[in-house]
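User: I'm putting together a teaching handout on how multi-component assemblies are represented. Below are the sequence lines for each component of a complex, exactly as they appear in our records. Could you produce the 3D structure of the whole assembly as structure tokens, so the students can see both representations side by side? Please keep the chain order the same as the input.
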Amino acid sequence: MGAATIVEARSMTVPLLEIQGLSKTFALKGGRSIRAVDGVSFVQRKGETIGIVGESGCGKSTLGRLILRLIEPTAGDVRFLGKDITLLPAEAMRAMRRHMQMIFQDPYTSLDPRMRVGSLIEEPLVIHGLGTPGERTREVARLLDTVGLPAEAAGRYPHEFSGGQRQRICIARALALHPQLIVADEPVSALDVSIQSQVLNLLMDLKREHGLSYLFISHNLAVVKYVSDTIAVMYLGRIVEMGSTGSIYADPKHPYTQALLAAIPEPDPERARDRVPLQGELPSPEHPPAGCPFHPRCPRAMDRCRSEVPQPLERGTKEHPHRVACHLYD
Amino acid sequence: MALFSVEDLAVSFGRGASRVRVVDGVSFSVDKGRTLGIVGESGCGKTVTVMSSIRLLPSPPSHIDSGRLRLGEVDLAALAPKALRDIWGNRIGVVFQDPMTSLNPTYTVGFQLREALRLHRRMTETEAHAEVLRMLDRVGINAPERRLTQYPHELSGGLRQRVLIAMALMCGPELLIADEPTTALDVTLQAQILDLLRSLRDELGMGILLVTHDLGVVAEFCDQVAVMYAGRIVESAGVKSLFASPRHPYTHGLLASIPRLTTEKGARLAAIEGMVPAPGERPAGCAFAQRCPRAQIRCREERPELVGDADHRYACFHPVSA
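Assistant: Of course. Below is the structure of the complete assembly, with chains in the same order as your input.
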């Protein structure tokens, strides 16, 4: 997105999505619990793509599901186009979901194998009582064309398609209701490289043509960088760093973001390696460390990191906001 | 002389009319202290190639139709099952992708690690115990004593993969086969495990045969690369040469289609249109021809053999210029 578009988006009065203090604690057996998402706040403008990155268990998928209220938050609120959806009754929430759709990682398990592709794509229209049967059939054909599948695909079953084609079917289904926001949870992770780029190109085309906004959840930092305007890095349920894509990759501030970027194997054998390998693994979210959740693995941890939770600090500019939760910048 | 060499390997599955050739005419070799990466997408035959090359796939359903398989002076193709088992786990170590299914959930980690030493080295319990501790320490596991009494499900993904590497290395193999050893792991863990494998290779002088779909891992970790497509090697070269000047249009397309940290945001990614043909539906001629932007009539009629020099070979009539 160019600078002009950012300004334009700012001038709109209501952001697409405002998340404040969103938290989710899952209860386990024996009175134990896991705080999967812990006090996450951010604002997403219309047309903006936000990439959420982090490793397994950091809470990124839970965050996506909380935003769509596929699971209920323990605390905090989500405002969609200015309206607090955390308090909406079930009926009103269903109506609201027209505007917010989700695409999942596994195109093999997210389509009912007994339904034909046409019915799968038509289903959201039927649920929301939109159009006559004839109109819906035409709409299905249009959607198949949009995602690059032939019209006769409507009469076939999901198992007749490859992984990449199934992901296209899922995307067509998500587009059926003309949503404004699509939460895409690892949408290309299960696909081979040559197919992955086809689907990424499609997602970018759809964004341009339909003015979509994505919340793009992935563990792959190169993919996230490619699609996102803004990046949020999560670690143990918290956003540890968030900023414009350019500023996060050019000037990563949090030691975790730095380590994550350095660990990516780039397909370039000539690239000089200056990796400081991160020691250890993500601690169990059941027993998060005191203080900064990253301090046991942090090469630059100080005394206060062991006891005091760092708060997000704004360290960017007005044009390029960049906030980081780390005592090094305090 | 190569530590491990495979010549003209062909493998098929099924029987009678439904018998399908899955791997065809594959040759490669691994040198001592070096790493060969076999890279390709799902279904290209990379795992079948590598597992058949040490005769680890059960027959039936798999059949090795041809192939000379040599580990040093030993002809693996001619070995009786008993002699093969002595080689597996002893002179050849194997690490699989999924650390959860490669360990037996009903035995402690210590028991499973000692078993290899008792079987292959005929060590006593006490000797095996000491050797296991030494190896766990070597693969970077803290407090190894405590791990010995734990069961696989009590370990994290990273620890389990370290245990598997320790198990594969327990008898000091000359050749380590690693099939997607880091694919199930997060990037920071992947970096740790690749660093570990690299230092073990240098220290023990093993040859490594690495199977992966990840060109980033190949670039970082391998000396030589063989790219597979539809059951054949379509290009093989030293790692720098392959990434700097891929000659086969498939390799070229793969490298161009990966989003990299240096890719401009939102710029259109190169894509290889279409899909890999299924093993029973591979066309005559070049298997990549139907997806290839450079294909000519000859490509659809005649199968290209590997050409080029010893350092860089490719199976293509119309290669990308170097």
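A couple of points students might notice: The radius of gyration of chain B is 21 Å. The CA atoms of residues 174 and 206 of chain B lie 5 Å apart.
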